[in-house]
């Protein structure tokens, strides 16, 4: 279900809370390769969320929430801002 112009709530929220003001051009990625950028964003968000989430149920919910994120959509949006 779409949310605020994004694929879903998870995508919108991760983009807003983790990647707002994130400058993708600082990481030396090939911005034409959206799949590689999406993988980088997924790994980055996972590292940020998992560092701040204790073991147990909260961590399980955080991981499940992040599985619903459309990483390719965030990558496409972010690289369009750089171009």
Q: Kindly state the number of beta strands.
A: 0
C-alpha termini separation: 29 Å
Which percent bin holds the helix content?
55-70%
Please report which band the strand proportion falls in: under 5%, 5-15%, 15-25%, 25-35%, 35-45% or over 45%. under 5%
General description of the model:
- With 83 residues, the chain is mainly alpha-helical.
- It has one domain (9-82).
- Helices cover 61% and strands 0% of the residues.
- The protein has four helices and no strands.
- The chain has helices spanning 9-18, 34-51, 57-67, 71-82.
- Helix 2 (34-51) runs antiparallel to helix 3 (57-67) and helix 2 (34-51) packs across helix 4 (71-82).
- The longest helix is centred in the middle third of the chain and has 18 residues, at 34-51.
- The radius of gyration is 13 Å and the shape is globular.
- The model has no long low-confidence stretch (mean pLDDT 92).
Quick take:
This protein is mainly α. It has one domain (9-82). The chain has four helices and no strands.
What brief labels describe this structure?
83 residues, globular, 61% helix, mainly alpha
Describe how the helices and strands are arranged.
Layout: H1 9-18, H2 34-51, H3 57-67, H4 71-82
Helix pairs in contact: 2-3, 2-4
């Amino acid at each position: 279900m779409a949310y605020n112009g994004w694929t879903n709530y998870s995508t919108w929220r991760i983009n807003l809370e983790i990647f707002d003001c994130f400058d993708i051009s600082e990481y030396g990625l090939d911005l034409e390769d959206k799949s590689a950028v999406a993988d980088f964003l997924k790994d980055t968000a996972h590292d940020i969320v998992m560092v701040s989430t204790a073991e147990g149920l909260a961590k399980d919910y955080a991981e499940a929430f992040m599985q619903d994120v459309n990483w390719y959509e965030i990558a496409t949006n972010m690289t369009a801002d750089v171009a």
